[in-house]
Specification:
There is one protein chain. It contains one helix and three strands; from the N terminus they run αβββ. The longest helix has 10 residues, at 2-11. The N and C termini lie far apart (33 Å). By secondary structure, it is of the alpha+beta class. It has a three-stranded antiparallel beta sheet with strand order 2-1-3, with no helix packed on it. InterPro entries: Beta-grasp_dom_sf (IPR012675).
Amino acid sequence: LKNLTDELVKKYPKLSGKVIKEKTLKTIPPYMFNLDGRHTINNLEHKLKKGDKLLLLFVTVGG
């Protein structure tokens, strides 16, 4: 996941500092990665497999 996050920042530099932390490459809340619509991923060492569907989400809660 870390390699993919790094590639996203290189391809879309405006993500850096607003969506993804510059030095750690972790998402900045309320943004998060979701795997296959089932799991939230915070571990950048997670190994993605062929066929995995990764979503970058903006999540807010309110009433």
